[in-house]
TrEMBL record, chains A, B, C, D, E, F:
Gene3D superfamilies, sorted: Nucleoside phosphorylase domain (3.40.50.1580)
An example Gene Ontology biological process: uridine catabolic process
Residue ranges of domain Nucleoside phosphorylase in the record: 13-205
Protein name, UniProt field: 5'-methylthioadenosine phosphorylase
Annotated PANTHER family: FI09636P-RELATED, URIDINE PHOSPHORYLASE
Family annotation (SUPFAM superfamilies): Purine and uridine phosphorylases
GO MF annotation terms: uridine phosphorylase activity
Length: 231, 231, 231, 231, 231, 231
């Protein structure tokens, strides 16, 4: 394939945009091995609950995650959970909560136009059961979850106060940079997918998690996601 | 308000695009009274499980249902379930099944542009709990449900075979004419909403429900929706 | 067809968005009978000047009126006059005047995109002779007419003062919700069509007609339209 | 102003895209004088029926005619008739007929975006009385007129057979290159305008006028237009 | 062809939007003859350095220059230099300097849509060698050149202070009305092209060249361009 | 900053989308040290010709490279050369040649919309002198260069034969995935930038470089780029 050089990947895949977070997920896997490394995009495979799980770095932005997702599906992925972070833009979402996107809003253009070969607003939604199971699992681990609408931005440095307030007013829970790409490709290819975003901070009140809280929370969430994928 | 002339409506509302279906829902309500009639748009109020429920006709198309939904929210509606029909475009969806839109795809333009005052793809999603409760309730009544992506079309008579196949290939479950408007207004106003579509037919294999099957099924679904809203 | 269940309709059709106004038009027809009733959309047929005339409810919004118009043309309609209302946004248009749209401005998107299967600005104009005859007839009945540009809006509740002033500055005479759909379908199908809007009010100075004035004026206009169609 | 260097122009203006045609119009004017010449755009002023008339070259394309029209209005023009040619795309329009655009369709973009400072489909229509008077005058001179929808193209050399048939199917009477610009600027500035297109040929059947027929017909039309403007 | 009635043109062509400037260029040519005159668009042919050179008027706006360029290429043009003017919007560009567009920004729409038959942002760039040779030649004649990004506007009269500042902030060197059309057609047809703009003024500080400076400078530039084309 | 955690970077920066290529560039630097590592994006700093040079990984896609470029400029970068690969779509470009984009074509949308806060086609061009110096340096090292138009795609897996042929017909030299982002941000921030693409293959004839050829060529190009930046 294009970026992942392994011959195949497992049906269960966790993708991350941060190598540190990939290490956290990997730390729970048995028989871990690096199965692909190309152009900065590294993949590992291991086992959890006697099932195989692949972890893959997805980079920044919709084109990057879309390419990785498409590659993964060609290689055999059938359940893909993205474990990412986000910044909340809703007063009641405390840093440390988890945001589960029932749908992503996005800017028209590029990746969508090329994949849809048409111009309409494509509904970006997760797999229903994967969503329910993950919400229930995380809640059972004591993690507060928020379900709703998230905006995938294409340009972090353009997030003016005005932009943030417009997105909050239109009832988005959070901003992030890749999720729409995952739901697009999984939607078009009919593969189960879900995003799980740990809210590192809240842009309305500037509250933030510190590094040790993040580390702690990410371990807990990683376990939850692995449980859902391999049960 | 603009179309609904009542001073207020109940928090629980069922909207329909078909007066026959409105009569079916009304038939389960106690103390039923007509509370508004204007320009062909008639509203009733009644009781179920000792809770008030309003039923309203929403007409055809996104601008019509959007106007009605906006009107209803101004008048006090807080949980709105649309009970509609649809045509399935997925082989495995038998007529008589229920399609629950986790998200609507739509054409850019008109109503979206005027409400968003901007041009981006706004994620159209239902309330999470209303969706779960309704799916569970309908399944418990023996109704098969399909959860996923639905396309709201603006022009029924342009549905060529080519169009239907494109929409099926992009993994839409069904086509209908109004749902995107409900999720748009409810999303922007932060009010709980859900659509429940009875699949009257399937456009891929031309299977159809007959009138008596429809009547039977609609009574069952109406009861299910009323249970969810008033529990 | 889709909404109108009659086997055919007369060549002359008057469509309205308000059941009260339909009753007014019907009151001038001989041998009146209800010929279709479905989903809230009711059609009548009667006679005037020994010619058959059908009256049909068209609902709210471009998708609704487009569907009805397309249905009507398939069923035999060849001259369609919409009798509607509007709100003027030009200082000199007094409530009680009639606005005759020489052309409609509109938002891009939905219905236009699906019917045109392309994206360009389609000129929405009435039949030349129908327009002249109607203007002359109404003027001869003592009704003041204004001919020019009207904007078909897709979202009544977004009409802020700023929006109204922008539309006035761009030299629109009035705002309303459906006309662009009629001219679109009639234009594409090469059928004669015209809209006649009674200005109920003026949004710049908040002048309004009262109910009895409306009733009186609508009777006069109905007669004028019937004369033009059946002469 | 930008292109027309005269201090002012008369209220009545005839604009043309062809210097030969300008000479034809000028030949009917008394006291003719050149009042502006800049960058290839030449203006003349003369008299007809004891009223002043200015004739101006408008060049090719929407930006060119828009600039000239805007310039003219700033300089005092209040009634502008464009006397142009076109190619018919409707079987029944014989070369030598006159096409009167009740409205122009056009491509989105450039000039429209900059003038409207917004993106919607702006209705491009002529002055009602100027249209009626001109139609009547030309018909009285024995010239056959067609009233309806014309498409202003931005690129003559892209008119493939497929393009022409699409435009014909959407019920356009003719193709030409500037008219939308005149109706746009006159519409926004609230000045009376009209286009009169002599059909030089018909693109469906490749019939064409020859040079002497054109010369003859243009003299007749020029007289008709001058009569309307100065009566 | 459409506008240029000559049977063929020389490989080397200079196009101008101003008849005065055309006279300046022509004044350097030997054996000058008018080879085409139609609809206000006049072409001359002559010799320089024993090579043939054609000069052509291109009118105002992208559709006009595009049509002329397309016509010229069909008639044999292979190296086209546009000699035009512009208004600078960068503080450091003094009137009298030359702006060489490495690329043009433009409004979407019309001409681009019809030629590309698609909607994407087409890169508008000059021929590399023609650009280098011209920059070097002009610098060697003592003319200061600025290389960079220029915006082709479709509507001169909409250039508000706000618009100018936005274009300056986005790092455009100058505004003008046609260049994007030349680079578009030359790009699609794979013919060498370049624009050379003499900055008549600067819109930020309102400095301007006077008529005699313009005349002087244009003679110098004309000579430079002729040297590059015929060397 | 967002991704690069160093306090500052050098004025001269080379960015790459492939860690192997970064190692090649780094191998020429003295006093090399890793200065930032975050989320998979690693930066090094070293010396060449006694000048400081930073090398940074930019990931896949326009949003990724745009974010990195914006970050770099905030940290002090003033001359940025991207050293990347591409696939040629022009018969005469042999694998192993270097493609120098005088301009990038791109899809509308996302990153462009957020940065421009407007919708027009922004000209994406390199710094003139950086381009000339690099072309001359590479040619002097015996590398064949092609200067012209490149398309930045947002979705590698949608490159059907039809798409490739359309892009070739519109006179693009090559396809790649990031360049438009670099020229956008550098253009808006007024910083000197250039892309240098080694053509790994040619999509029209399926010729390809082998791994050892790539390695050899990349060393040569790396040296050339370093010479240009530090001279």
């Amino acid at each position: 394939m294009a970026i992942i050089t392994a011959k195949s990947v497992s049906e269960n895949v966790i993708i991350v945009g941060n190598l540190e977070r990939q290490r956290t997920v990997n730390s729970f896997l048995g028989n871990l091995e690096k199965v692909s490394e190309f152009a900065g995009y590294t993949s590992y495979q291991g086992e959890y609950n006697n099932k195989k799980v692949t972890t893959v770095f997805h980079g920044i932005g919709i084109p990057s995650i879309s390419l990785i997702t498409d590659d993964l599906i060609s290689l055999g992925a059938r359940r893909i959970i993205r474990f990412g972070s986000c910044n909340a833009i809703r007063e009641e979402i405390e840093p440390g909560s988890v945001v589960i996107p029932q749908g992503y809003s996005y800017n028209f253009g590029g990746t969508f136009r090329q994949y849809l070969n048409d111009e309409y607003s494509y509904s970006l939604i997760p797999d229903y059961d994967l969503m329910l199971n993950t919400v229930n699992e995380l809640e059972s681990l004591g993690i507060k979850t928020f379900k709703g609408r998230v905006f995938t931005s294409d340009a972090l440095f353009t997030h003016s106060r005005e932009f943030i307030e417009k997105m909050a007013k239109d009832n988005h829970m959070a901003l992030e940079l890749e999720g729409a790409g995952l739901y697009l490709i999984a939607g078009l290819k009919n593969v189960k997918a879900l995003s799980v975003h740990l809210a590192y901070g809240n842009l309305l009140n500037n509250k933030k998690m510190d590094a040790s809280e993040i580390s702690e929370k990410e371990k807990l969430i990683a376990k939850g996601i692995l449980n859902v994928l391999t049960r």
